[in-house]
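Appendix B. Raw example, untouched.
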Amino acid sequence: MNQEQLLNLAYQYYPKNITFRDREINNYLNTDEYKRLSQKIKEFTFQKKYIDFHQSLIEKLSNHEKLNNLRETSLLGWEDRCLIFEFDFIENEVLIKINLQVSVITELYVLFITTNKISIHPYKWLSLPQRDKSIEQQQKYASILEFINQTMKDDFGYTALKEEQAHIILEDVCFQDIAMGQFNLYHAFFLNDNKFVS
């Protein structure tokens, strides 16, 4: 999808020029756009075709020998706009996490790697996860990313959201804790917490 198509789609789910703050919250929650978003998330949670898609995706990803430690951390009940799959690897006290986020609004996904320093005994994080593009280029991980990309495209017909598209701001939209002027296309289709776009 091009920029105009993505923006038009996003505006179907997020009302313009209404804040998500105390005084206007009821106005926001009663818009057709917000109701459409809520309905879409509920459909992905309860409709059989989406449940089947979800199960099929897990089965396909589990076919890769290095992706047997799949964790799903989706919080659709908190209005995340995507399914979240994580694959963890630990090397030299660094947690390397492959993040696959699959939009429930449209057939888009993002795929990236975050790293953060950890202590093994006792296990704890010593730093917060940050996207690490250098690790994404390493052969060991690049081949896993390629497998996931091919699975998403060939088996499910999904398209990766480009990073330059994810940056695009919808100036007249806010959602939950994201103020107007800060809400971008990544937020529209995926999460409030944005580690994909640095």
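End of appendix B.
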